[in-house]
Specification:
By secondary structure, this protein is α+β, with helices and mostly antiparallel strands. It has 16 helices and ten strands. A three-stranded antiparallel sheet has the order 1-2-3. A three-stranded antiparallel sheet has the order 8-9-10. Helix 9 packs parallel to helix 13 (337-350).
């Protein structure tokens, strides 16, 4: 009979750097089939060695004990089968892992592991969902599965609504404000996703959040530029070449609707010609939804300026330069990369493009999502169209 081999695998997706950590996993391999078990330990590129495992850290002994214990438990299970002359079966192994999860894993650990293991969501979605792990640890009353009660979840919701968050104004000064209701709704949505995930994996028998009503909140309707503000940005005299390049990227997004991650993923081969028109086809990195956009003249000018190879920035670099660019352009709004995407939707709707077309261009999963984001513009469209009946 054949039995699996096991080994540690670090940075399976090749994303680790000296400033970006990655996960250590245990690989189980049998006859070409693989399964990866998260250790829950993340380290940077210069903190891993195949020989010594975790290294160059003050807590490396503790972390090595942790990952060795996880692998050792799996090895003991496989050795036990071999000694008993019993075959290894993947279904039985899954049940073994499930029992171990129930015995040792906290709910917070479970969420963290599942976020890292999932292959059906993008890296940006994983980063967004990972915020709930930090939030639950700060809250402190929901750690283990036994603490996942209706009362604790309700209290967590109220705790979120009462939190103050720190923000930066256009001059770099900090100020505090209450967390947005829509942000709280997002946290509660993620919590319910992993409650249902735990039920699916038989870690929970029921959903303790049933009956808890969560307000979605109004969408912030100010995250776009007016057509006058766009012209002000286009015509501004900027002090640095880097700000001019960031402006070009921002304007390109204003006329194409690309989110930052999709903008950085732009490639000339995504363009297709249809007579005199050029179209941009792709799938959104965040959601996997397809989009199709006609390249408008302003966007075409920018593509030609850079010979169809747009400048590349990290999200942090881009947003920092955007704020400087906005300040020199006389824009008082706290601009971020997402302003351009919303501005694109605003331009289309204000110019009479049908909402189902806008939804396809934006890569929205449903028209309802488009309606929610652009509710105020749609109201103006209704008034404008119905006024023609007078």
């Amino acid at each position: 009979m054949k039995y699996p081999t096991t080994r540690f695998v670090f940075d399976r997706k090749k994303t680790a750097t000296k400033t970006n950590d990655a996960l250590i996993q245990v690989e189980i391999l049998l006859c070409g089939r693989k399964k990866y078990i998260s250790t829950g330990v993340k380290v940077y590129k210069d903190q891993w060695s195949m020989k010594s495992h975790v290294t160059n850290r003050d807590d490396m002994l503790t972390l090595n004990e942790r990952i060795d214990a996880i692998k050792g438990h799996i090895d003991s299970y496989i050795i036990g089968l071999a000694k008993s002359n019993m075959p290894f079966e993947w279904d039985s192994f899954e049940r073994f892992l499930m029992q171990q999860d129930k015995a040792k894993t906290t709910f917070i650990d479970y969420i963290e592991r599942r976020i890292n293991e999932r292959t059906d969501i993008s890296e940006s979605t994983k980063k967004c969902q990972a915020k709930i792990v930090t939030s639950l640890r700060k809250y402190g009353k929901i750690v283990g599965f036994e603490q996942l009660t209706k009362t604790n979840i309700s209290d967590y919701y109220e705790w979120l609504l009462g939190r103050d968050i720190t923000k930066f104004d256009m001059n770099g000064k900090t100020y505090t404000q209450k967390i947005a209701v829509s942000t709280v709704w997002s946290y509660m949505k993620t919590l319910r996703i992993y409650i249902h995930d735990a039920m699916m994996h038989e870690m929970l028998d029921r959903d303790p959040s049933i009956g808890i009503r969560v307000k979605r909140g109004d969408y912030n309707q100010t995250k776009w530029l007016s057509e006058d503000e766009i012209k002000r940005v286009e015509n501004a005299r900027l002090s640095k070449g880097s700000l001019a390049r960031v402006r070009d990227l921002f304007i390109f997004s204003c006329y194409s609707g690309l989110a930052f991650s999709d903008l950085m993923d732009f490639r000339p081969e995504k363009l297709e010609q249809d007579g005199e028109n050029t179209f941009l086809y792709g799938k959104r990195i965040k959601t996997g939804q397809e989009y199709v956009v006609l390249i408008l003249p302003k966007a075409q000018e920018i593509l030609e300026k850079y010979d169809y190879h747009l400048p590349k920035y990290t999200n942090q670099q881009y947003n920092k330069r955007l704020k400087d660019m906005a300040k020199e352009s006389g824009i008082e709004k706290p601009i971020s990369s997402h302003f351009a995407r919303h501005t694109f939707g605003m331009l289309l709707l204000n110019n009479g493009v049908r909402i189902e077309v806008v939804a396809k261009a934006m890569g929205h999963s449903t028209i309802r999502e488009t309606e929610r984001v652009y509710a105020s513009i749609l109201k103006k469209t209704v008034v404008s169209e119905m006024s023609k009946l007078k």
